[in-house]
Amino acid sequence: MEKSVKPYVTRRAVRELVVQFLYQFEMSGGKLDEGLPLFWETQAEVGEKGRKFAEELVRGVIERRAEIDEKIAKYTEHWDLPRIAAVDRNILRLAMYEMLFRDDIPPVVSINEAVDIAKKFSTRESGAFVNGILDRLKVDLTRPSRTSTSTR
Rounded to two decimals, what is the model's pTM? Predict the structure, then answer.
């Protein structure tokens, strides 16, 4: 009998799934406790560790969305939030959540991941746009940008 091996899923792949869920959640106006189980039914197996990380991020972003959206508005001075492409908006939400509330993730990691995800899922200009906004937030952070300050 062969032993089933769970695939190794990178945090990048998990973040991509989180952005997809956040986008879907925003567009459908759904409920988290209904939408998340349905979302997992349509996804390839990410393993227990990947799913746990994803759900922490999803729940964190959604719980703090109003606060995060205020930050986005602050750092995108002449852009109304609805004017920002929905994909970019949700990439920014995820990265800002990590930078502001996940001290186990270095801010530069969150920025690099967000820029690469924006380049993959949005327009050519999105990577630079996302980078510019997140760099402005990074300057205002009171923690080191290249190291984590916690172990989760």
Answer: 0.88
What is d(CA 133, CA 123) in angstroms, rounded to the nearest whole number? 16
Q: How many domains does the chain have?
A: 1
DSSP 78-118: T--GGGS-HHHHHHHHHHHHHHHH-TTS-HHHHHHHHHHHH
Helix (H) and strand (E) counts in the chain:
7, 0
Q: Is residue 6 part of a domain?
A: no
**CATH at residue 66:** 1.10.940.10
**Domain that includes residue 127, residue range:** 11-140
Confidence of residue 8 (pLDDT cuts 50, 70, 90): low
Look at residue 86 and tell me if it is in a domain. Answer: yes
| DSSP state for residue 144 in the 8-state scheme | -
Residues 149, 106: Cα–Cα separation, whole Å: 8
